Write a sequence for this structure.
């Protein structure tokens, strides 16, 4: 029948030499992925050039001194132990000063509720993350991959023509506290958290590994013995960059983006957004049989960080077809795949007479599946994806927060008052504003200075604390 023919598609493509595993001819990166956390790859020498405060072959060794451990103490391993109220790899970020307003919780489940670094006494003060269902909108696409594409071996098993279930994941922080992850490289030598980040050379940014997991679940699939058994097809993403993508609530206390690529997290009332057109924002379903499937998206599956509520972390989305498929099977919620001799939206119309063949009818569609078995209306070119039968330009924004997206629009806008876009790198560059300021927020996530004992910061100047009470 048609379903069997669809499943043979991958086999035939493999036989033709169009689907094979990734080989060794793909160029290897000149530097180790570990280099990029605290350095950059010098393409002339093929060696790692270290950022300030780091040394070693892959810039893995910290050089702790006053300049690199601003408000803290140096440990024997070169790391910093921050003074009360300060965070960051160099202990230079003051909690309670905008935009790091309390409360905020880090990956060690420490929740701070004031500018002095005091812990929250109320256990309900924590982030609360869940996936927003209305943005999911899954659909099926056939896409061709070259052997050296980043996705090969990462989120698809082979190159060639693959069948993908694409979807958008919008993860909302509904809790009263920020989730503060911080600089990815600060965890590389942590015994408990050292395995939570990896550098993705193709995407050119760090990936937070335990952010979410994708699953396809079928409770009606028959096993090898013919019995109905629960089948789970699980695919963990190679990781995500966890940032403030969009302000999802008008009640969110923060109005500008706090957390970006090298300072990760999600503030209260904001969401991390991964749209369907991005690389690996899919499950490879080439070898799966159509039927009664449920798509599951789970955030924080390993409970790596504290939340107010874990019961809402799992989203279950049934992939159903409407109308129901009478003589066929539902193709992962996209459309009906009809048995031989049947056609129509619900597979309930006979076609032709005995011996006649199905004639593909794509209408206005330029890509995607046709009404006939083993027939596609077309496949989109590189840097494009198929949606509703049309080839759409795929924005090339991996690792970018601003600048052109390659599709006539932009990858985002710089929201900070002192930020400008470096379009060549796609990064928002912030210029500190500390002229005529002794203390207070510098406009770039740090402070211009701190006041001494018995002093308070008023209008960016340090004055005697008792002077602030004069009426």
């Amino acid at each position: 029948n048609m379903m069997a023919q669809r499943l043979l598609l991958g086999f035939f493509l493999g036989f033709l030499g169009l689907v094979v595993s990734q080989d060794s001819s793909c160029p290897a990166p000149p530097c180790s992925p570990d280099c990029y956390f605290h350095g950059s790859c010098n393409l002339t020498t093929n060696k790692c050039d270290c950022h300030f405060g780091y040394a070693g072959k892959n810039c893995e060794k910290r050089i702790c001194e006053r300049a690199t451990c601003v408000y803290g103490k140096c440990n024997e391993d070169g790391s910093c132990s921050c003074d009360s109220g300060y965070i960051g790899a160099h202990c230079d970020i003051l909690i309670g000063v905008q935009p790091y307003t309390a409360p905020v919780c880090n990956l060690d489940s420490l929740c701070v509720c004031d500018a002095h670094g005091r812990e929250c006494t109320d256990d309900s003060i924590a982030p609360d993350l869940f996936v927003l269902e209305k943005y999911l909108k899954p659909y099926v696409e056939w896409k061709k991959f070259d052997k050296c594409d980043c996705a090969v071996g990462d989120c698809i098993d082979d190159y060639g023509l693959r069948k993908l279930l694409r979807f958008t994941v919008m993860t909302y922080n509904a809790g009263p506290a920020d989730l503060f992850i911080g600089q990815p490289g600060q965890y590389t030598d942590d015994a408990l958290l050292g395995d939570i980040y990896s550098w993705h050379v193709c995407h050119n940014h760090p990936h937070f590994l335990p952010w979410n997991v994708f699953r396809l679940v079928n409770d009606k699939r028959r096993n090898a013995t013919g019995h109905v058994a629960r089948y789970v097809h699980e695919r963990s993403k190679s990781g995500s960059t966890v940032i403030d993508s969009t302000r999802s609530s008008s009640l969110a206390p923060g109005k500008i983006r706090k957390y970006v690529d090298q300072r990760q997290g999600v503030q209260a009332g904001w969401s991390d957004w991964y749209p369907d057109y991005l690389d690996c924002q899919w499950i490879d379903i080439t070898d799966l049989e159509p039927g009664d499937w449920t798509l599951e998206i789970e955030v924080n599956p390993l409970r790596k960080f504290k939340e107010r509520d874990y019961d809402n972390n799992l989203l279950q989305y049934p992939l159903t077809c409407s109308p129901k498929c009478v003589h066929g099977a539902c193709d992962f919620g996209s459309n009906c795949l009809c048995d031989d001799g049947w056609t129509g939206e619900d597979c309930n119309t006979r076609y032709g007479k005995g011996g006649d063949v199905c004639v593909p009818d794509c209408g206005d569609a330029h890509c995607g599946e046709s009404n006939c078995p083993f027939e596609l209306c077309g496949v989109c070119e590189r840097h494009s994806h198929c949606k509703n039968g049309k080839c759409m330009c795929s924005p090339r924004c991996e690792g970018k927060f601003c600048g052109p997206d390659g599709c006539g629009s932009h990858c985002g806008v710089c929201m900070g008052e002192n930020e400008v876009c470096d379009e060549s790198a796609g990064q928002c560059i912030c210029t500190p504003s500390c002229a005529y300021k002794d203390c207070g927020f510098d406009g770039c996530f740090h402070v211009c200075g701190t006041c001494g004992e018995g002093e308070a910061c008023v209008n960016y100047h340090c004055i005697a604390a008792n002077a602030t009470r004069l009426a």
